[in-house]
Amino acid sequence: MTTIQHISTGRRIKDRVVQGLVYLAFALAVVPLISVLWLVISNGLERFDLEFLTHSMNGIGARDAHGGAYHAIIGTLEQVLLASLISVPIGLLTAIYLVEYGNGGRLSRSISFFVDVMTGVPSVVAGLFVFAFWILFLGFQFSGWAGALALSILMMPTVVRSAEEMLRLVPGDLREASYALGVPKWRTIVKVVLPTAFTGIVTGVMLAVARVAGETAPLLMTVFFTNSINNDPFNGPQMGLPLFVFDQAARPNDTAIDRAWTGALTLILIVMLLNLVARLIAWWRSPARGR
Amino acid sequence: MATNVRTRDGGPATSRSASRRSRGEAPFRYLSTAAGVALLAIMAAIAVFLISEAIPALQANKANFFTELTWEPNSSREFGIAALAFGTVLSSLLALVIATPVAVGVALFISHYAPRRLAAPLGYLIDLLAAVPSVVYGLWGVAFLVPLLRTPSQWLNENLGWFPLFAGEGIIGGKTMIAGAVVLAIMILPIIAAISREVFLQAPKMNEEAALALGATRWEMIRMAVLPFGRPGVISAAMLGLGRAMGETIAVALIFPATFDITFQILTPHANSIAANIANGFGEANDIGRGALIASGLVLFIITLLVNMAARFVINRRKEYARAGA
Amino acid sequence: MSKQIQVSGLDAYYGSHKAIEDVSMTIEPRSITAFIGPSGCGKSTFLRTLNRMHEVIPGARVEGKVLLDGEDLYAPTIEPVSVRRMIGMVFQRPNPFPTMSIYENVAAGLRLNRGRISRSELDGIVEESLKGANLWNEVKDRLNKPGAGLSGGQQQRLCIARAIAVQPEVLLMDEPCSALDPISTLAIEDLMAKLKDKYTIVIVTHNMQQAARVSDRTAFFNLAAQGQPGKVIEMDETSRMFTNPTQKATEDYITGRFG
């Protein structure tokens, strides 16, 4: 019985080798993730204490072991919140324009194109722009608000894209049913379309927040530096958690490096938590979308 | 990815609501249009203000901005972009060369090799790589990767030193171009993998089945029906990754030793980039210095803009191609 | 060339769902066997078990035996890849590789299975296969143009040429004309009549006239209810099936009372 010939060894080996390479590629990609998380956790836990979370660096000398990132955590939370307050309305309205009003015209196509291009604006350029515009041109001082402006530029395209995607998922029947009842278009959008897409939009916004919460470069030239607590994001330099890590990591002392690791751990916890919550919302909602 | 559904035409609904003379309609439409226009305005403003704030420093520059290697705007007022731009391009290209094959492998793993049940969670794991903040990668790079690469770097230099990239005398290893490039590669891997995964999943099932029915192995099927279809998508993904790598700042600011020379010796501690120089130099810069940094930021903005627009152009071409094929 | 297929006690599953149950039949060489039946009755699924394409779908599996001239296709030592090399398949929608030329489409299978092959030999086989698929005269001047530029009917004949280029023993056709216009359909039917001199042909069709026109034997598939597995109700010479079926369900289906 020799009807069915086996495939040649060469082909079999090639198939196996490629399979091996593909698995290897995946392993290679996961190794740095594990390594980063492991180092951050093991090195960060050392100083991950109450003092770190409740004290600033005010009056802490270069070699001192104490001090904390309270001022940086407060700064990051305020800056990210302000950035969201700016970018979410603009981003959401832009998405509404693209989906509901744009009708594929020239304006909507160029907005759509530049949203994509904006995704690629380097974060350091966003920072430099706010510095050039807000601080040099308009003459304001370094502040948390200036940092929020820079972060919001980075958030906007992400918010637009995710909101746009969610709005397009809303079934047309739903809109038409509302129109058929004589509800005007804008009220249909506000009362029917947005609530239907709500959880999806929240997920997108949280992922965008998670992304900018870890940004350091734009803060350098907008928020600047401070070692003390500044609760007012509109007046004077603030700190941000990523900035804190950068600042401490660039210092030569072990005590500072320890603080950098702990700052990194805190930052990763915040970012991962935001990510996780966003994914949970998306996951919790997905069965409804499948139907 | 954004689906490319055409915008639903609101024609009849608009006229009906207009006939009911809804007072909210016009303001709401103008508001959403204004938001979109604001986005365009921001892009334009970035260009305008970077240019206007860079001009004074460029005028004060005593050297040729495009050919000068050194960066001394604060003291001698001589500064040029040449070495920095070279470092930006070289580090990003190296990162791309390292990341793309791995990312394509990862994308194929998720789309065609991993068990169906595991594909989504494993894909999420790769996405998590993108969630790690840049500054954390920088910290990791300095503390872990730089020491790790020292021995292999020295080995390469001793045994393959005839190859220009591995050449160099004196100190080998440490805060090198290759260390920064590896970190950049890790950071751009998720975006290349995610886009490639999408296009591989979109490869027509009927062509995959045709290949299998001809007696193709899994790899042969992928080569016949998946890779040719996905090629434009992978190319644009790689270009987006390149744009990311060029703009990436803090990680390389911590790793690169801030030298100002042009060398292909990636195993020696000579490396810098436009973005890293901005991050490292901003704190101590005076007015001219800051203007100079803004000028370098403008160059970075233009380079990344071109790379990104080219990538988008390829993607949009592919969309048309995919639509024509459907 | 051209071999007999014997199926005994075959069940096919999608995950936990049983799509077909206990199918046994003999498919004779050098003849055309047609599978008819209402949608969802498992005839396409069954066709795909004959060249192990069924298991390409995640979670799909098969129990039972399929013998190709006495050799079990599902024996543990047999690889699905080599089975598919022996048993070619043509799909419902024409699916030439969009990035390849007409020539490359026909040569695709040969390049896989024959390793190094001389250009002149390849040219010969491509020409012969395209002639075998009644397509040569229409495409001989544009062999290097993309296959996607052809009409639907031409694309389907290109797919047939691609399948016969590797000289399979059996040709499986899954509703090959359902996406085509009547003239293209006629061209494919003529082609089938010609190909049956060399191949064992199995065709799934929704079109009973087509089954009556082209096939030598016909199997009627049906299922008891939605969600139940499909079964073979009756199998016989086509002429007898369509004039004098033994089962009431077959008669009802053929006369158009359901389905």
From TrEMBL, chain A:
It is a multi-pass membrane protein. CDD domains: TM_PBP2. Residues 73-278 form the ABC transmembrane type-1 domain. It comes from the Bacteria. PROSITE patterns: ABC_TM1. It is found in: Cell membrane. GO terms for cellular component: plasma membrane. GO terms for biological process: phosphate ion transmembrane transport. The keyword GTP-binding does not apply. Keywords: Cell membrane, Membrane, Phosphate transport, Transmembrane, Transmembrane helix, Transport. Part of the binding-protein-dependent transport system for phosphate; probably responsible for the translocation of the substrate across the membrane. Belongs to the binding-protein-dependent transport system permease family. CysTW subfamily. This is Phosphate transport system permease protein PstA. The lineage of its organism: Bacteria, Bacillati, Actinomycetota, Actinomycetes, Streptosporangiales.
UniProtKB/TrEMBL annotation, chain B:
It is found in: Cell membrane. The chain crosses the membrane at residues 30-51, 79-110, 122-150, 170-195, 288-311. Pfam families: BPD_transp_1 (PF00528). Gene3D superfamilies: MetI-like. SUPFAM superfamilies: MetI-like. It is a multi-pass membrane protein. One of its GO terms (biological process) is phosphate ion transport. Residues 1-21 are annotated as: Disordered. Residues 85-311 form the ABC transmembrane type-1 domain. Keywords: Cell membrane, Membrane, Phosphate transport, Transmembrane, Transmembrane helix, Transport. It comes from the Bacteria. One of its GO terms (cellular component) is plasma membrane. One of its GO terms (molecular function) is phosphate transmembrane transporter activity. Belongs to the binding-protein-dependent transport system permease family. CysTW subfamily. NCBIfam families: phosphate_pstC. Part of the binding-protein-dependent transport system for phosphate; probably responsible for the translocation of the substrate across the membrane. This is Phosphate transport system permease protein.
From TrEMBL, chain C:
Keywords: ATP-binding, Nucleotide-binding, Translocase, Transport. It comes from the Bacteria. GO terms for molecular function: ATP binding; ATP hydrolysis activity; phosphate transmembrane transporter activity. Coiled coil: none annotated. The keyword Transport applies. GO terms for biological process: phosphate ion transmembrane transport. GO terms for cellular component: membrane. Residues 5-248 form the ABC transporter domain. PANTHER family: ABC TRANSPORTER I FAMILY MEMBER 17. This is Phosphate ABC transporter ATP-binding protein. It comes from [Actinomadura] parvosata subsp. kistnae.
